[in-house]
Amino acid sequence: MKKLLLKLGGGAIKFTFKLKPHEVGSLMRIVAVQINDNEEVISETDVGYIEGKYADRISFKEMTD
Asked: Which pLDDT value is given to residue 3?
């Protein structure tokens, strides 16, 4: 899992993305996971969905300005 750093104002939020199964059908949820400095999960937020059969085609790449 790639970890990304999101800077908002004076602080920074670390998060990563992962795929999780959806409760209905064959959808996969794209989830942003906020983590602390000890790599513990603080929160998870759904940011999108993808059909399960295409899940192996998605990848997350770290990008910088």
From this structure: 54
